[in-house]
Amino acid sequence: MATIHRHMRLLSRMCYSSLASQKPSSQWGISGMDGESWNLLHKKMGPEERNMQWIFLGCPGVGKGTYASRLSQLLGVPHIATGDLVREELAQSGPSASELAGIVNQGKLVSDEIIVNLLSRRLEKSALKGETGFILDGFPRTTNQAEILEQAMEIDLVINLKLREDVLLQKCLGRRICSQCGGNFNVASINFEEKEGTPAIYMAPLLPPPSCVSKLTTREDDTEEVVKERLRVYHAKSRPVEEFYRSRGKLLEFDLPGGIPESWPKLLAALNIEESEYKERLAA
Ligand code: ADP
Fold first, then answer.
1. Considering its fold, how many domains does the chain have in total?
2. 83 alpha carbon to ligand 1 midpoint, in Å?
3. What is the pLDDT of residues 44-79, one digit of tens each?
4. Which amino acids bring their CB within 6 angstroms of ligand 1?
């Protein structure tokens, strides 16, 4: 536990400070470094001096990645998905990758220590590029992670995406990734009737262009058994994170009304974002 807090203190310093020196990373990034070696000037930026620091919460398959990525492009802030950081580690061969694969492919959570180190390393890259702000997707996933993050930096807003559970399973099973361009698609055609007061929902498939069709892959943890386990783990470990932010007045609940064409404009409206205004700003 003490190690995790030390990493988060470093993480905080890295994000808010000018870096005076850089140390080589060890297996998980910053293990082994101590605060003194960084010789950093600690300065927490207020919200007026930096870009937004937002979090997307929600069950597996809800679309955190899709909406976080769209918002990050629109708002010009980095989209940081801890699931992607984990998959990058998995793609490396070696003992740490096979240890991770064993955890992820069973639908379990990676240890706080590993995930905090991966996130620290990613935020460090952003800080070195002079980027401020982020849209976090997939972190925090436990109240312990939320507490660690809270000690390190201020979170402005947490968007909790919601979708009925039968849809979540179908969306995970329909997910496809192009092994060449990395594009995310979904072959599931969702057309669910109203059920026990839950409104009917329609989501068209998000089909790949012809150039990607022969290169589609499925995530190893997107099998029915593993998705069900991920949903169980979400209810047990991540639901309390919603309450953590609700009690701090930071949680925005958003029920997805359908696919991207219906949900995106409604999400922007809920966030009070004028798409054209941001597009003009980015183009200027
Ligand atoms: P999901 O579709 O379940 O939201 P992600 O792509 O966010 O999946 O994450 C994939 C896997 O990576 C998770 O099932 C978990 O094993 C690991 N992971 C990602 N983020 C975290 C985290 N914050 N804490 C622990 N494990 C994580």
1. 1
2. 5
3. 556 667 889 999 999 999 999 999 999 999 999 999
4. 60-61, 82-83, 86, 103-104, 107-110, 115, 138-139, 141, 145, 221, 230
